[in-house]
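Annual report, structural modelling task.

Input specification for the manganese (II) ion complex:
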Amino acid sequence: MEILTEINIPKNKLKTTLELYLNPTQIEEINDVLDFAEKSHKDQKRISGEPYIIHPIATAQNLAEMKLDTTTIKGALLHDVIEDCNVSYNEIEKLFGSEVAYIVDGATKLKNIDKINESSQMAIEINTPQRTRSATLRKILIAMTKDVRVVLIKLSDRLHNMQTLKYLPASRQLRIARETLDIHAPLAHRLGMNEIKWKLEDESFRYLNPENYKMISKLVARKRLERERYVNAAVESLKTELEKSNIKSLIYGRAKHLYSIYKKINRYQEIGRKFNEIHDLFALRILTDNINDCYKTLGIVHSKWRPLQGEFDDYIGNPKENMYQSLHTSVIGPGNYSMEIQIRTKEMEKIAQEGVASHWSYKEGEQNVTNGNNFEQQITWLKQILEWQQEFTEDEEYLSSVKTDILSDQVFVYTPKGDVIDLPIGATPLDFAYRVHTELGHNATRAYINNKIVALNTILQNGDLVEIKKSRKNKGPNINWLNPELNFLSSIGAQTKVRQWFNKQNKNVIEREGKKILNKELTRLSIDLSESEIAEKMDFTTTKELIEALGSGTIPITRIAEAIDRTENKIKNNNPSVQPGVLVVIGEQDLLTKIGRCCNPIHGDEIIGYLTRNQDVTVHKISCNNAKYSLKPEKIVDVNWGEYTTTYSSRLIVNAYDRVGLIRDITMVVSSEGVNIHKITSSENKGSNAVNIAMTVYTRGVQQLSKLFSRLEAIPGIESVIRINE
Ligand code: MN
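The model returned the following structure:
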């Protein structure tokens, strides 16, 4: 009989799991690999004091439970031998073949490029500086684009490290948990591996936010019995109905995961909705044998319990980009409580839990057909990860592009050909253009969303059809696109490309561009300062330096107005007009205020506000007799004089091509900048559709005016905006 040592228990467990889906020859092969790994890690211990081999076995165990192929299991068992045991790539290739060698090498950390001594080679996570960690993550992402099994091993490896994180010092716990939540969990999500995703999230949550973690664990435990009773009753009554219609199903109440409950509580708080400890903590899940039964089941559910408006999603007809399929609905369940229900087939359930991994898994003794089909090449964001490899030299830059542009929450839009492009939430048509092709981005002039012309910095919504028009001459990007205030680009990838373009221009071009920008700004703002005076105000030693910084995109155009504003408002013929102090109702931004006619308070008086029947606020002096004697105390609100604002009038001329909605777009931009328009007139040029629009605006000064110009120039159809002297 075998002795149950601390190594033999996990070993036997792994063997039992493998025997469920592999044949004896395959298991024999895996045993050889395990022996080799065990010998290589001999005498090595983890920080917990356990023999090191426990870790590779645990990594393989997670993957065996998903019935992954032998190459993946072997790779998991060997994943630390190059890193920690001085075993070479060639040796693994010779012993176990090139596929195994490739994925082990792909999952191996880079040697510390900063040459700082490791404190302990056997640490769970080597305490390397950020630079090496970024380079390693980059290497793993690239290796993954050729063979996604690299990342399956890496995620399983990370999961076991997270599950044993308590042995590490607190500072490293936080750093590793943060990285897991920022990179590994989103990566699992985009690969559709929900099971591992929520485990990674919950483990990270435990370390990053221990108070809330405990609070929510208690919340889940507190009403468990009541919840189970409710779920069981719902399950039983539904089961009967489905059986009557001859639908075979598996129904259960799935408790939500801690981190997702935490996010739900926060979301509810934002919209002022009360969180229900019994009904918001679970979802009912129904698994059927086939798609037909999913829809039949949905019909039965909806006729039994009233569905909630706007809560139905058909991810069977429209699968999510990470392959997830299911029907989602919310109904008013027993006892008048809302209840979430998910309906899917058993196959869809497997994909919902394992995502991409299911492509590499065994199904009844055979490997999935899709595997080996190079399906990695069909995932567009994997292609993107690979393309950026050429475009970004800096690892940090590369990694932050992946983090912001690919691993963050995404918006999905369509090209005119019907291809789906995924971009980070907040992305614009310009981000889209850069994602499709760098040249399309550089030369983008107009954008259409759902066949309507829009500004290049419009925020994209899910499902938008986006079309970009290129300029015929290769005009290159606009330096304003780098101006963060204008929100042209939210993806790091696109921003970097614009910056790279400007940096690649030769000195003459940069100088010419810089001069153009400076002159344009001084002209359109009608500023009376020389170039050298501006350079001095902006702390540049020479005008040339300023011009180069502007021309290469190192500093945005807004810095000019900022510097002028900071020192003095030197607008030609400025005629400052002091506006009455703005009234502010404390705590309420949107209430209208009126000055009480009885006492006519002026700026500086002590005042109170009175809520009228029309829900606006009349302002009285505190000493006003009306206020003292006839107002109801419960209707009194606190008010304050806002700051005195001095505004300056400027006359602007906008040159544009006329189109429907142009004036509306202009006034919307102006008012969204908090600027008042006094007069607006437009005159057409006979025989063309060019128009001149003249308006007088009141701004707080040069800086606000400059930003307004840039935003106006971004409106489709607008050619130029200048300030003129009356
Ligand atoms: Mn490891």
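Residues 55, 79-80, 157 surround manganese (II) ion (CB under 6 Å).
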